[in-house]
Amino acid sequence: MIRFVLGIIGLAGILIALPLMLAGGSLYWADTILTDEDGFMNSNTMEIEVDGFALVAGPADIEDLPEIPDSPIALGEIATLRIQAQNLDADKGIFIGMASTQTLDEYLGGVTYAVFDEIEDDEMFLSYRMNAPQDPLALPDEQPFWVQSTSGMGLQELEWELAEGDVSFVVMNDDASDGMAIEVVVGVRVPLIKPVGVGLLVGGGVALALSTLLLAIAL
Question: For a tag on the chain, would you pick the N or C end, based on fewer CB atoms within 10 A?
Answer without folding.
Answer: N
